[in-house]
Amino acid sequence: MTVRLPIVQADAEPAPAPRKRHPDWLRVPMPGGDGYQALRSMVKELGLHTVCQSASCPNIGECWNHRALTIMILGDICTRSCRFCDVATGRPLPVDHGEPARVATMLAALELNHTVITSVDRDDLRDGGAGIWAETLHACHAAAPDMTIEVLVPDFKGALADVDTVLDAGPDVFAHNLETVPRLSREVRVQARYDRSYSVLRRARERGALVKTGLMLGLGEELAEVREVIDQLAELGLTILTLGQYLQPSKKHLPVHRYVHPDEFAELKRHALAAGIVHVESGPLVRSSYHAEGQAELIRRLQAGAGKIGFASLRPPTA
Q1: Which one of 164, 205, 249, 317 is CB 3.0 to 4.6 Å from 86, fit for a cystine?
Q2: pLDDT over threshold 90, residue 46
């Protein structure tokens, strides 16, 4: 009797390990709907970029159906290679000086109460793109004078004169994300520094701005480290904080260390509010601009009570 043994290829690769499934609380429906499609067409027609698309945001369907989006200026190629971010890295195209007017045209057409503008890092430019930031804000002020604007800016390599250029153009909220705790900052944000980012936030607060930042959880941080950062931000006078779950965009990005349970996000929100931070968005699907459109009235109220950076702060919303 002949026994046939299975043939094994000497150079056969082992079967890949199954990908870790997201927990139930991280599942979202595929984007779609009339509002989503209409906004997608407008973005494409005007040749604009959004961080919603470039960074593969899981909330794009929900936000775009509510006509809430985050415009990304200065192109869609970043000069940095942060290990969490899905925005393309490389040599950017020359500055498009027609972009500020197109951004203003689109935002005015949407008739929004509030919007968010962000950008890629442009370390190839002498001012880090601050001049285009200012042009964009001035164009938006003129086109949509009743809309409040949140800017989510890069660190400008710590050049506070460039930070001042953006502040002088009158954003209603000045945001810059720390992204993670100091211990992990260099690993997560390769060309950035935690202390430099903190100095950008401090400068904006010293100038009287309403200041916002965000942290991702699930990268290996300890909750005690997150609480320590929250306490420092509260002492700084931070206005708005976002806390969300890090999700790995691709195999070349940092892996998810753990999925943080919604109960932990709720506990951190309680801690931040008790520390004195005015508004906190905390949950697995929260991103920097999540539900930002719902913060317009909060922003107006805070600015009316504590002075203002933004141009529209002391005027009531248009009926």
Answers
A1: 249
A2: no
Instruction: Decide: helix, strand or coil at residue 82.
Output: coil
Instruction: Retrieve residue 141's tokens.
Output: 């002020």
Say if strands 148-152 and 49-50 run parallel, antiparallel, or are unpaired.
Answer: unpaired
- Phi, psi values for residue 112, rounded to 5°: -85, 150
Lowest mean pLDDT among 77-86, 202-211, 232-241: 77-86
Mean pLDDT within 42-52: 59
Strand partners, 279: 240
* pLDDT tens-place string over residues 272-299: 999 999 999 999 988 776 666 667 778 8
Q: In whole angstroms, what is the distance from residue 168 CA to residue 170 CA?
A: 5
Q: Are 149 and 115 in contact (CB under 8 A)?
A: yes
pLDDT level of residue 70 (50, 70, 90 thresholds): confident
**Alpha helix stretches (DSSP H) within the chain:** 34-45, 51-54, 60-65, 99-110, 130-143, 160-168, 182-188, 194-206, 223-236, 262-275, 296-306
